[in-house]
Amino acid sequence: MDLFHNLIYGFSIALSFQNTLYCFIGCLLGTLIGVLPGIGPLATIAMLLPITFTLPPVAALIMLAGIYYGAQYGGSTTAILVNLPGETSAVITCIDGYQMARQGRAGAALAIAAIGSFFAGTVCTMIIAMFGPVIAEIAFEFRAPEYFSLMLMGLVAAAVLSQGDMSKSLAMVALGLLFGVVGTDVSTGVERFSFGFTELADGIGFVVIAVGVFAVGEIVSNLGDLEERIVHTSRVSHLFPTKEDLKRSIGPIVRGTLLGAFFGVLPGTGPAIASFSSYMVEKKLAKDPSQFGSGAIQGVAGPEAANNADAQCKFIPMLTLGIPASGTMAMMLGALIIQGINPGPQVMVNNRDLFWGLIASMWVGNLMLLVLNLPLVGLWVNLLKVPYRLLFPAIMVFSSIGIYSVNTSSVELTLAAIFGALGFIWIKLGCPAAPMLLGFVLGPMLEENLRRALLISRGDPSVFITRPISLAFVIATVLIVLTMAVPAVRKRQSKIAG
Amino acid sequence: MKLEFRRNQDFWAGLMFLGIGAVAIFVARNYPFGRLLRMGAGYFPTLLGWVLILFGAYIMVKGLRKAVKVQGSWPIRAVIVLPVMIVLFGILMERAGFIPALAALAFGSAAAGKEFRWGEVLLLTAFLTVLSLAVFVWGLGLPFPLIKGF
């Protein structure tokens, strides 16, 4: 069996000493930083991105993936223990998880969250292994027009489906595309928007934008608004859930996984949507819905499985098509490109070790989280008490060294400072930065494919709607915009956000 | 309809997109435009400039019709100090070396916060400097000069 062979090959790579170590470091760092207040997963990955450049591509991606789901897991831990969602995906977990903790059942809630996430991770590893190659196979038939339409769809969907104002998200995508234009034009050799700086001839560095906007910008905003929090925690005892708990959680975990996997492959639908729908489904199916909101274990099990499944299935479009479906995946894609890997379906052929090694490492990482984090809960709780005034100088130091280490250039630091200020202004003006990052990563490829498509068609723009696959993407794009413009759907979205 | 520009979120957001779009078109006019068949270097940025202007205008008008206020406070000190510290870090890295640059960055960043406690900040600065040395120079082996003469 091909699938079997591939998975075994993947595990042989993921379980090498070096890669296991980096997976472990990634999971640990991710959880650690995910638990710390005021640092989201995007800032975490941005800050640690430069460190991974010193590693070989496979190890780098494995570590980044570990950081990603580690951070997610850390967010759920704080949601349950202190009612603070480390990130949006854990908002739903707060509702019943914190109630359980208040009733002295924090251990059970944490364990169920870990078990649910692990189950979802296992299923999604299989899903990626099964469907990844199929999607890549189809994508091999894509030419420039298909790629252009696909990227357009990805960008529009990511902007439109994300929470917040649709027109501002779309404008931010365009802004990101414009930042991507800076530098020497590959087709004609003209230097664009470099304003005479030789440092800009190669374009704006990915790390500069990522760290500037997502680490520095966020710190500035937090310094204005983040309240020092007082943490009340009871001791966590009885880590193991009862048989009754497990029995009640199986259904929600399975359903949550399926829901999460479904939303995961759609671009732009954040994990908040997956966990929210899982919560609603469980509440509808429950024999006694009144328990929800006052410590129902189903309300933790389902959403936690869903957001982990979502997080993992987001890798499918990134790995097989080279299309990032979220801000985090844009970071991963940026890391791939910096490592010199050309994203797209050919990754699976040209970088077979990377593709299968990464997939296998996801399962390894999920297992690590399950085994390691439960005993470490006490440590995480103590970390919560670290005040922000001690944290943000550390983030500043690590971010700045990271930026400088990429090209040993002080001009890049100045640029990052500018993007830091911009990032803060965008937060204040309600302009989401993640769509901008997607645009920035895809910009050069989008332009190139647009040019190539029109060259093939001798300048006839109808090429995008006469080729069937491209037409399907165009129709999907239009449909997404139309559905989201309908007020009822938007109202529900803002409810999730609130 | 009361026009309160100062804290009108969409008005400023729209204005920003509009302005950037206009600058993009203005700068890109110097690049060869080309045709649809063979696009020049200026084609794509000009197109994006117009997209930004359209969205900007729409968002601005929306803001004028239904004002959403900018939320939260403006940490003026942080907005100025933190970016300046990053720039200073770059200058010190080239002129003075890794250790002085790090110490200045850690100390200066801490000064941007709401609370500043001398003892704590000095300890933090020392800790971060040593930690970064351990991780980046000894651990990852980055070739940064530690201290340079002026």
Number of helices of chain B: 5
Helix % of chain B is 55-70%
Count of alpha/pi helices of chain A: 22
Tally of structural domains of chain A: 1
Structure description:
The complex is a heterodimer of chains A (498) and B (150). Chain A has 498 residues and is mostly helical. Chain A has one domain. Helix content of chain A is 75%, strand content 1%. A two-stranded antiparallel sheet of chain A has the order 1-2. In chain A, strand 1 and strand 2 form a beta hairpin. Chain A is globular and about 65 Å long. Chain B folds into 2 domains: 57 residues; 64 residues, no CATH class. Chain B contains 5 helices and no strands. The radius of gyration of chain B is 23 Å and the shape is flat. At the A-B interface, helix 8, helix 9, helix 17, helix 18 and helix 19 of A face helix 1, helix 2, helix 3, helix 4 and helix 5 of B.
Task: Give a summary of the structure in a few sentences.
Chain A has 498 residues and is mostly helical.
